[in-house]
Amino acid sequence: MGLGIRDSGFGAHATRGPHPQSGQIPNPKSRIPLLNAILDKDVAARAGWTILDLARAFLSGGARFLQVRAKHASSAWLLDASSAVVALGQAVGATVVVNDRADIARLSRAHGVHLGQQDLDPASARAIVGCDALVGLSTHTLKQVDAATSQPVSYLAIGPVFGTATKATGHAAIGLDLVSRAAARARERGLPVVAIGGITLDTAADVIGAGASSVAVISDLVSTGDPEARVHAYLDRLSQVSDV
Ligand code: TZP
Ligand code: MG
What is the pLDDT of residues 165-189, one digit of tens each? Predict the structure, then answer.
Protein backbone atom coordinates (compact mmCIF):
# COMPACT_ATOMS: atom_id res chain seq x y z
CA MET A 1 0.00 0.00 0.00
CA GLY A 2 1.26 3.45 -0.83
CA LEU A 3 0.94 6.59 1.19
CA GLY A 4 -2.19 7.75 -0.55
CA ILE A 5 -0.37 10.55 -2.33
CA ARG A 6 -2.62 13.37 -3.31
CA ASP A 7 -1.16 16.29 -5.18
CA SER A 8 2.41 16.16 -3.98
CA GLY A 9 3.53 19.08 -6.10
CA PHE A 10 6.04 16.87 -7.87
CA GLY A 11 4.01 15.88 -10.89
CA ALA A 12 5.47 12.73 -12.38
CA HIS A 13 7.79 12.17 -9.43
CA ALA A 14 4.92 11.37 -7.16
CA THR A 15 3.93 8.47 -9.34
CA ARG A 16 7.42 7.21 -10.00
CA GLY A 17 7.49 3.45 -9.60
CA PRO A 18 10.20 1.43 -7.95
CA HIS A 19 12.36 1.32 -11.08
CA PRO A 20 12.95 4.79 -12.49
CA GLN A 21 13.78 4.81 -16.15
CA SER A 22 16.08 7.08 -18.01
CA GLY A 23 14.37 9.98 -19.69
CA GLN A 24 11.07 9.44 -17.95
CA ILE A 25 10.83 13.06 -16.90
CA PRO A 26 11.83 15.38 -19.73
CA ASN A 27 12.15 18.56 -17.70
CA PRO A 28 12.63 17.95 -13.99
CA LYS A 29 12.97 21.66 -13.33
CA SER A 30 9.29 22.06 -14.03
CA ARG A 31 8.24 19.47 -11.51
CA ILE A 32 9.74 20.28 -8.18
CA PRO A 33 9.20 23.33 -5.99
CA LEU A 34 12.11 25.76 -6.13
CA LEU A 35 12.41 25.94 -2.35
CA ASN A 36 12.71 22.96 -0.02
CA ALA A 37 12.07 24.55 3.37
CA ILE A 38 13.53 22.32 6.05
CA LEU A 39 11.96 22.30 9.49
CA ASP A 40 14.86 21.32 11.70
CA LYS A 41 13.79 20.95 15.34
CA ASP A 42 17.13 21.99 16.82
CA VAL A 43 17.71 24.95 14.51
CA ALA A 44 14.11 26.07 15.04
CA ALA A 45 14.45 25.85 18.82
CA ARG A 46 17.67 27.86 18.82
CA ALA A 47 15.83 30.57 16.89
CA GLY A 48 12.90 30.45 19.31
CA TRP A 49 10.46 28.55 17.14
CA THR A 50 8.49 25.35 17.57
CA ILE A 51 8.35 23.11 14.53
CA LEU A 52 4.63 23.75 14.12
CA ASP A 53 4.82 27.52 14.35
CA LEU A 54 7.72 27.47 11.93
CA ALA A 55 5.75 25.22 9.56
CA ARG A 56 2.88 27.71 9.65
CA ALA A 57 5.27 30.55 8.88
CA PHE A 58 6.90 28.67 6.00
CA LEU A 59 3.53 27.78 4.52
CA SER A 60 2.22 31.32 4.94
CA GLY A 61 5.30 32.53 3.12
CA GLY A 62 4.43 30.24 0.22
CA ALA A 63 6.66 27.20 0.79
CA ARG A 64 5.12 24.09 -0.72
CA PHE A 65 7.86 21.54 -0.11
CA LEU A 66 8.72 20.92 3.53
CA GLN A 67 10.96 18.42 5.24
CA VAL A 68 10.60 17.54 8.92
CA ARG A 69 14.01 16.91 10.50
CA ALA A 70 14.59 16.11 14.17
CA LYS A 71 17.82 14.24 14.74
CA HIS A 72 17.53 14.14 18.52
CA ALA A 73 13.81 13.67 19.06
CA SER A 74 12.02 10.53 20.16
CA SER A 75 10.08 8.49 17.64
CA ALA A 76 6.85 9.47 19.38
CA TRP A 77 7.69 13.17 19.14
CA LEU A 78 8.64 12.86 15.48
CA LEU A 79 5.43 11.03 14.62
CA ASP A 80 3.31 13.66 16.36
CA ALA A 81 5.19 16.54 14.77
CA SER A 82 5.22 15.00 11.31
CA SER A 83 1.50 14.21 11.47
CA ALA A 84 0.75 17.77 12.48
CA VAL A 85 2.93 19.23 9.71
CA VAL A 86 1.30 16.91 7.17
CA ALA A 87 -2.12 18.18 8.28
CA LEU A 88 -0.98 21.80 7.93
CA GLY A 89 0.50 21.05 4.52
CA GLN A 90 -2.62 19.29 3.31
CA ALA A 91 -4.65 22.44 3.80
CA VAL A 92 -2.60 24.22 1.14
CA GLY A 93 -1.46 21.31 -1.02
CA ALA A 94 2.11 21.29 0.22
CA THR A 95 4.42 18.30 -0.05
CA VAL A 96 5.86 17.06 3.25
CA VAL A 97 8.68 14.56 3.60
CA VAL A 98 10.25 13.18 6.75
CA ASN A 99 14.00 13.04 7.21
CA ASP A 100 15.59 9.63 7.81
CA ARG A 101 12.53 7.70 8.95
CA ALA A 102 10.49 5.75 6.40
CA ASP A 103 8.37 4.30 9.21
CA ILE A 104 7.41 7.73 10.51
CA ALA A 105 6.79 8.97 6.97
CA ARG A 106 4.31 6.21 6.40
CA LEU A 107 2.60 6.48 9.78
CA SER A 108 2.25 10.25 9.51
CA ARG A 109 0.90 9.97 5.95
CA ALA A 110 3.67 12.21 4.69
CA HIS A 111 4.40 12.27 0.97
CA GLY A 112 7.71 10.55 1.46
CA VAL A 113 11.05 10.22 3.14
CA HIS A 114 14.42 11.87 2.71
CA LEU A 115 17.35 9.49 3.18
CA GLY A 116 21.03 9.95 3.83
CA GLN A 117 23.80 7.64 2.74
CA GLN A 118 23.74 5.93 6.16
CA ASP A 119 19.97 5.44 6.32
CA LEU A 120 17.91 2.63 4.87
CA ASP A 121 18.75 2.12 1.22
CA PRO A 122 16.12 3.54 -1.17
CA ALA A 123 14.65 0.15 -2.10
CA SER A 124 14.14 -0.79 1.54
CA ALA A 125 12.68 2.60 2.38
CA ARG A 126 10.37 2.36 -0.60
CA ALA A 127 9.19 -1.04 0.61
CA ILE A 128 7.90 0.84 3.66
CA VAL A 129 6.55 4.05 2.13
CA GLY A 130 5.18 2.52 -1.07
CA CYS A 131 5.81 2.90 -4.75
CA ASP A 132 3.84 6.15 -5.04
CA ALA A 133 5.75 7.96 -2.32
CA LEU A 134 8.69 10.30 -2.71
CA VAL A 135 12.08 8.92 -1.78
CA GLY A 136 14.87 11.49 -1.75
CA LEU A 137 18.51 10.61 -1.27
CA SER A 138 21.37 12.85 -0.15
CA THR A 139 24.60 12.59 -2.11
CA HIS A 140 27.95 14.30 -1.71
CA THR A 141 29.99 13.16 -4.72
CA LEU A 142 29.44 12.42 -8.41
CA LYS A 143 30.06 8.78 -7.66
CA GLN A 144 27.17 8.79 -5.22
CA VAL A 145 25.03 10.64 -7.77
CA ASP A 146 25.74 7.98 -10.37
CA ALA A 147 25.00 5.19 -7.90
CA ALA A 148 21.77 6.88 -6.84
CA THR A 149 20.40 7.16 -10.36
CA SER A 150 19.95 3.41 -10.54
CA GLN A 151 18.10 3.34 -7.21
CA PRO A 152 14.32 3.77 -6.80
CA VAL A 153 14.58 7.43 -5.85
CA SER A 154 12.35 10.38 -6.75
CA TYR A 155 14.93 13.13 -6.38
CA LEU A 156 18.53 13.56 -5.31
CA ALA A 157 20.00 16.05 -2.93
CA ILE A 158 23.61 17.18 -3.32
CA GLY A 159 25.74 19.10 -0.90
CA PRO A 160 27.03 20.78 1.04
CA VAL A 161 27.15 23.38 -1.71
CA PHE A 162 28.78 25.93 0.58
CA GLY A 163 30.17 25.79 4.08
CA THR A 164 27.48 25.15 6.66
CA ALA A 165 27.42 25.06 10.43
CA THR A 166 24.11 23.21 10.54
CA LYS A 167 25.45 19.74 9.84
CA ALA A 168 28.88 18.17 10.09
CA THR A 169 28.64 16.38 6.77
CA GLY A 170 32.23 15.17 6.69
CA HIS A 171 32.43 16.52 3.16
CA ALA A 172 34.04 19.69 1.86
CA ALA A 173 31.84 22.24 0.17
CA ILE A 174 31.24 21.03 -3.38
CA GLY A 175 30.63 24.40 -5.04
CA LEU A 176 28.42 25.36 -7.94
CA ASP A 177 30.44 23.52 -10.56
CA LEU A 178 29.70 20.18 -8.97
CA VAL A 179 26.05 21.15 -8.59
CA SER A 180 25.95 21.71 -12.35
CA ARG A 181 27.61 18.42 -13.14
CA ALA A 182 25.45 16.49 -10.69
CA ALA A 183 22.28 18.10 -11.99
CA ALA A 184 23.23 17.27 -15.59
CA ARG A 185 23.89 13.64 -14.78
CA ALA A 186 20.74 13.29 -12.72
CA ARG A 187 18.66 14.98 -15.39
CA GLU A 188 19.84 12.44 -17.94
CA ARG A 189 18.08 9.91 -15.73
CA GLY A 190 15.01 12.08 -15.24
CA LEU A 191 15.80 13.01 -11.65
CA PRO A 192 15.68 16.52 -10.20
CA VAL A 193 18.45 17.69 -7.90
CA VAL A 194 17.91 19.57 -4.67
CA ALA A 195 21.03 21.49 -3.63
CA ILE A 196 21.71 21.90 0.08
CA GLY A 197 24.23 23.36 2.48
CA GLY A 198 25.06 26.95 3.38
CA ILE A 199 22.61 28.40 0.87
CA THR A 200 21.37 31.92 1.60
CA LEU A 201 19.00 34.36 -0.03
CA ASP A 202 21.97 35.94 -1.77
CA THR A 203 23.26 32.68 -3.26
CA ALA A 204 20.04 30.73 -3.90
CA ALA A 205 19.49 32.14 -7.39
CA ASP A 206 23.01 31.17 -8.46
CA VAL A 207 22.40 27.63 -7.25
CA ILE A 208 19.25 27.35 -9.34
CA GLY A 209 21.10 28.99 -12.20
CA ALA A 210 23.77 26.30 -11.90
CA GLY A 211 21.17 23.65 -12.64
CA ALA A 212 19.58 22.64 -9.35
CA SER A 213 15.83 22.19 -9.49
CA SER A 214 15.39 23.29 -5.90
CA VAL A 215 17.36 24.74 -2.99
CA ALA A 216 17.04 23.21 0.47
CA VAL A 217 17.56 25.70 3.24
CA ILE A 218 17.59 25.36 7.01
CA SER A 219 19.28 28.10 8.99
CA ASP A 220 18.96 31.02 6.59
CA LEU A 221 15.17 30.75 6.71
CA VAL A 222 15.20 31.63 10.42
CA SER A 223 18.11 34.05 10.25
CA THR A 224 16.05 37.23 10.18
CA GLY A 225 13.42 36.37 12.79
CA ASP A 226 10.69 36.55 10.14
CA PRO A 227 10.67 33.19 8.33
CA GLU A 228 7.42 33.92 6.51
CA ALA A 229 8.94 36.99 4.88
CA ARG A 230 12.21 35.15 4.26
CA VAL A 231 10.43 32.31 2.43
CA HIS A 232 8.49 34.87 0.42
CA ALA A 233 11.74 36.61 -0.48
CA TYR A 234 13.29 33.33 -1.65
CA LEU A 235 10.30 32.49 -3.82
CA ASP A 236 10.30 35.97 -5.26
CA ARG A 237 13.99 35.84 -6.07
CA LEU A 238 13.94 32.27 -7.40
CA SER A 239 10.97 32.87 -9.66
CA GLN A 240 13.12 35.39 -11.50
CA VAL A 241 15.84 32.87 -12.37
CA SER A 242 13.70 29.82 -12.93
CA ASP A 243 13.08 28.97 -16.57
CA VAL A 244 9.77 27.29 -15.77
N1 TZP B 1 22.88 18.11 4.32
C2 TZP B 1 23.95 18.63 3.71
S3 TZP B 1 24.30 20.20 4.28
C4 TZP B 1 22.97 20.14 5.36
C5 TZP B 1 22.32 18.93 5.25
C6 TZP B 1 21.15 18.51 6.01
C7 TZP B 1 22.63 21.26 6.26
C8 TZP B 1 22.12 22.45 5.52
O9 TZP B 1 21.72 23.47 6.44
P10 TZP B 1 21.87 25.01 6.12
O11 TZP B 1 21.58 25.68 7.45
O12 TZP B 1 20.85 25.39 5.10
O13 TZP B 1 23.30 25.25 5.68
MG1 MG C 1 19.64 10.67 7.40
Answer: 988 888 899 999 999 999 999 999 9
Give me the architecture of the 35-239 domain, per CATH: Alpha-Beta Barrel (3.20)
Report the predicted TM-score, pTM, of the whole model to 2 decimal places: 0.89
Residue in 58, 100, 196 to alter for ligand 1 test, most ligand atoms within 8 A of Cβ? 196
Write down the pLDDT at residue 29. Answer: 41
207 vs 164, higher pLDDT = 207
pLDDT of residue 168: 87
**Residue 36 Cα to ligand 2 middle (Å):** 16
For residues 60 and 187, what is the distance between their CA atoms, to the nearest angstrom? 31
Q: Enumerate the domain spans of the chain.
A: 35-239
Q: Cβ(169) to ligand 1 under 6 A?
A: yes
Render pLDDT for 77-126 as a digit per residue (tens, 0 to 9): 999 999 999 999 999 999 999 999 999 999 999 999 999 999 999 999 99
Which ligand is in closest contact with the Cα of 195?
A: 1
> How far is ligand 2, taken at its centre, from the CA of residue 240, in Å?
32
Long-range contacts of 178-185 (CB under 8 A, 24+ apart): 178/142, 179/207, 179/210, 179/211, 179/212, 180/210, 180/211, 181/142, 182/139, 182/142, 182/145, 182/156, 182/158, 182/211, 183/158, 183/210, 183/211, 183/212, 183/213, 184/211, 185/142, 185/145, 185/146, 185/149
